[in-house]
Design a protein that fits this description.
This protein is α/β, with parallel strands linked by helices. 55% of the residues lie in helices and 12% in strands. The longest helix has 32 residues, at 372-403.
C-alpha cells in the first residue's frame, strides 16, 4: 500500500498537541509501517523529523496543478492501492489500518464544523475517475462517490471498540485551517481518550488538572515515560510519610501521583508516543502500589504496632485486593477485554467500586475528620464487597455465556 499526503494543503504553524498535522499523519502511519511501501508528501509542509524519516519510506515532491490532477498522476504511476490524505486534516489513526484491510476504492467521510473531511483508499484503476480539477481530497471523494467510482467506508464497517479505553468510538475526521479549529479538535481528542468505565475522581475531578498539564507537556515534547517516572517517585515517596503518620504530605504526593497517572496515558496516546516500556511501567505501578499505601496507612494509624487490629485489617485488605485482581483476570483472559465492558451495569459500578482513586478520597476525609481508623475499616469492608461483586458477576457471566449458542460473547458495553 502507498500513501499520498497533500502537503500543499497543510496550514503553516498549526499544531495539535505539539505536532503538525503532517507529523501526526506520519506518526500514526508508523504504526502500520510494515504494510506501507512508500509515503509521498506532495508539497512543502516543512522538514520531516529525522526520527520519522528514518523509520518510514518517505519521499517529498512538489508537483504543479490542482489536487485532483496531482493525485491522479500518483495513483496511475503504481500498481498498489493508495491512501490519500489531506494535509489540513486530522485523521483518526485507527482509520489507516481499517482502510488498509478492505478492498476496492473507498471514501471515508466525516462532517464537523460544517466542513466535510475525507480519507480515500484508491485502487490503481481509479486514477482515470479522479476529477483533475478538484481542489482538495474532500471534493475528490464526493465526486468519486457520485460517479460510482468508489463506495463509502461507513461507521458500520469500522471496528470502533478500543480495548484499552473500554469503550466504542466512531472514527473521526477534522479539517483544521486555523487555531480555533485546532483548539476544538484538541478538546475532542482529549475527551475521546478517557476510558468508558472508570472511577468517579478520574472521570469528574481530575480532568481539568490533566488538561492543564497535557497541553504544555505535549508542546514541550516531554515523553510520557518521564511523567511516569515522576509518578513512580511520588508513589513510593508517599509510603514513608504514611508510615510515620505524616498523612498530609503523604496524601499530597498520592494525589499528585493519581493526576500524573492520567496525564502519562493521555500524553502517550495524543502524541503517538506510547511504548511497551511505558505500558509496563504504568500498569505495573497501578497493580503494585495500592497495598503499599494501605499497609502504610495502617502503620501510621497504629503507630507501628504490628499487633494492632488496624494493621491486621491492612493485611486482609491486601488479600482482598490480590484476590480481586485475580478474579478480574479470569474474565480478561477469556474475553480479551475488561469485565467492566461487559454490560452497562458493570461500567456504572466501576465508578465507585473499591479502587485507589475511590479509597484515597475516603481515607482523606477520615483523616481530616479524625476518624482515620474507622474509615480504614470501612475501606477494607468495601474492598471485600467489591471482591464478592466481581466474583459473583464473573461466574454469572460465565454461566450465561456457556448457555449462549456457539458461546458468542456479549456485545461490549457502550458499543
Amino acid at each position: 500500500m502507498r500513501v499520498w499526503i497533500d502537503g500543499a494543503a497543510a496550514p503553516a504553524g498549526l499544531r495539535v498537541f505539539g505536532l503538525t498535522l503532517v507529523e501526526r499523519h506520519l506518526r500514526a502511519l508508523g504504526r502500520i509501517a510494515d504494510r506501507i511501501t512508500e509515503i509521498c508528501i506532495d508539497g512543502a509542509p516543512g522538514p520531516v523529523p529525522p526520527a520519522l524519516a528514518g523509520r518510514l519510506e518517505l519521499r517529498q515532491t512538489s508537483s504543479d496543478g490542482p489536487c485532483g490532477a496531482r493525485l491522479a498522476a500518483y495513483v496511475a504511476a503504481g500498481t498498489e492501492p493508495v491512501l490519500a490524505i489531506a494535509g489540513d486534516s486530522l485523521v483518526d489513526a485507527r482509520l489507516f489500518a481499517a482502510m488498509g484491510d478492505v478492498s476496492g476504492s473507498r471514501v471515508a467521510e466525516d462532517e464537523k464544523d460544517g466542513q466535510t473531511t475525507a480519507l480515500l483508499r484508491l485502487e490503481p484503476d481509479a486514477a482515470g475517475a479522479i476529477p483533475a480539477e478538484a481542489r482538495n481530497i474532500a471534493e475528490i471523494g464526493a465526486q468519486l462517490l457520485a460517479r460510482g467510482a468508489a463506495i463509502p467506508f461507513t461507521q458500520d464497517a469500522f471496528p470502533g471498540f478500543i480495548t484499552v479505553l473500554r469503550r466504542t468510538l466512531p472514527f473521526h475526521l477534522f479539517t483544521l485551517r486555523d487555531h480555533a479549529a485546532a483548539a476544538r479538535a484538541e478538546r475532542f481528542l482529549f475527551w475521546s481518550n478517557y476510558k468508558g468505565s472508570t472511577d468517579f475522581f478520574t472521570k469528574y475531578v481530575y480532568p481539568p488538572l490533566v488538561w492543564l498539564l497535557v497541553r504544555p507537556l505535549a508542546a514541550a515534547r516531554i515523553h510520557p515515560n518521564v511523567v511516569t517516572i515522576v509518578s513512580i517517585v511520588f508513589t513510593f515517596a508517599a509510603v514513608p510519610f504514611f508510615a510515620a503518620g505524616a498523612f498530609i504530605p503523604g496524601l499530597l504526593l498520592a494525589y499528585a501521583m493519581s493526576v500524573l497517572d492520567s496525564v502519562d496515558g493521555k500524553l502517550a496516546r495524543l502524541t503517538f508516543t506510547d511504548s511497551k516500556l511505558g505500558n509496563v511501567l504504568d500498569h505495573g505501578l497501578d497493580i503494585v502500589h495500592p497495598p503499599l499505601w494501605y499497609v502504610g496507612w495502617a502503620w501510621g494509624l497504629s503507630g507501628g504496632d504490628l499487633g494492632a487490629p488496624v494493621f491486621a485489617a491492612s493485611l486482609w485488605m491486601t488479600a482482598f485486593y490480590v484476590a480481586d485482581r485475580l478474579v478480574l483476570a479470569i474474565y480478561r483472559n477469556i474475553f480479551k477485554r475488561g469485565l467492566h465492558t461487559h454490560a452497562p451495569i458493570d461500567a456504572a459500578v466501576r465508578t465507585f467500586i473499591s479502587r485507589r482513586n475511590v479509597n484515597l478520597p475516603l481515607f482523606t476525609v477520615g483523616v481530616l475528620a479524625g476518624f482515620g481508623t474507622e474509615v480504614f475499616y470501612a475501606i477494607v469492608a468495601w474492598q471485600a464487597a467489591t471482591l464478592l461483586w466481581h466474583a459473583g458477576r464473573t461466574f454469572w457471566i460465565l454461566a450465561v455465556e456457556k448457555a449462549r449458542p456457539h458461546s458468542a460473547p456479549a456485545r461490549p458495553a457502550g458499543s
